[in-house]
Task: structure prediction
Amino acid sequence: MIKRLNSLWGPDEVVNLTGASSDRLLLAGETAVIDFTSATSVPLHIQTVEGLYEIDIMSNTAGTVTNDSAITLSANNTTYSNAFHNFYHGSSSANSHIIGGNSDSSSIILAYSLPYQITSRITTRTASKSSVSEGFTKSTSGKNMVKYICDWDDSTTAWTSLGTVTLPFAQSGKIVVHRVA
Result:
């Protein structure tokens, strides 16, 4: 029998947080899985410490997008007025190259439109909080490859709960969160 060794960074465990009602602290190396059905908002129920997290959002792509609303992450399960500086870079079947920004948002923008798959790396240090998201989306303008960069313009508020993902319309899918460090 072959026994799997723990990773160098800590335990290599997967926990199912589907239907969780309170936040759970992930240890370095642990992964959480959250399944969602017909949801516009998905609380992650993950307690954070100053660390590095990866989030993968995979949803169905059967719906028709009638607007290009954002997929957002509300840190600490709340919104903060004008606290996030979001910038994006992407390409689509309608436009070969897009660069833009929104410096006055109340949450972290992970992507716009309907995600095929989005991956985000999030740093939750109190003095320096940021995220980088990239992936593929589908919108009214076609299929898009996007990269979003966000800085939380606040060096004093602790990021204690990873937060809630908000989707532009009811979708089903899976969110996987991995605590890297």
Q: What stands out?
A: The mean pLDDT is 81.
